[in-house]
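Hi there,

I know you've been waiting on this one. I reran it after we fixed the sequence typo, so this is the corrected version. Both the input and the resulting structure follow.
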Amino acid sequence: MRFGRNVAGYKFALGEVLLELGAHQLTFASLADLAVPYAAALCRHLELEDKQTTSAQSRFLDACRSRSRGELDETKLIETTVRLGFQNVIDGFHVSRDGQPVEHRFFIDERSKRNGIALTDDLLALASGPHAGVLPREVEARWNLVEVSWGLGLGSRIVSFEMEPDADPDPLHLYAPRRLRRAPVIGVRDALSGYQNGRCAYCGTEFTDIGRSRVAVDHVIPFLLMSHGWQDGDLHQVWNFVLACWACNSAKRDRPPAKEWMPWLVERAEQLIGSHHPLRETLMKQLGKDAEEREQTLVRRYTEATTLLRPWMPPRLPGW
């Protein structure tokens, strides 16, 4: 789900439902049981963005639209969802963009035996673990990013998404480009959580909540430099943002991290770009078109920052 090919919103809807079922520690769900929350999630998102697939037509999505218009009753929608809504998503849920199966399977397909799916221990552990409160928000963030890119006609290339502060710079939001500006797309914390496996970038502490009171959005290269003659690109962009626990954020303050930490930032950018994350094109625009140029950009900016500010050593280096 995290790095799969985004050709429809179905994986996000199913991911949302699986987390909900896992939170209740259920071990089996029939297609009829899945159909109710699954169709409801897609109906909700169709009202926000009508384009939920790159395919020209979808009889299932047409049924969801009919339900939203009051033309189809709930019973008929559930029947249609069971018949059409799971044809591809169950088969493709555990397949990554390169066509390879993912390491962990969250359900076993038992449609031929019991007309449903068996939820695995991996899902139950995930849905009750330390990231349980974070994951639904991350799924929603990924879904919003992808559907907005479709709605703006950018395919899977969100080429000019930018970071922009509100009047109160906390919370922050992702916005569409100025010429296509509409409402904020998603909060920065939600969008960044998956970048670093739900952990503090500097000490590796697992986040159980990514609300404002517990997790800070930190500028790796301090934004302070923008008011001190900084000329090498905007520091208020996604490439320079990480999530940090309040202890690390308070200790770091207006200092760049130690040089030994910086390869993590380089690796994070390359993993996201290589996985075709919705912000792939944004990162390439901000850092460079190829891996060598992106590394040179980060090294150059870090070198300049550390001539002006003394580095800070994180409690532990990446490699959790």
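Quick highlight: The chain has two domains: 10-128, 147-308.

Best,
R. S.
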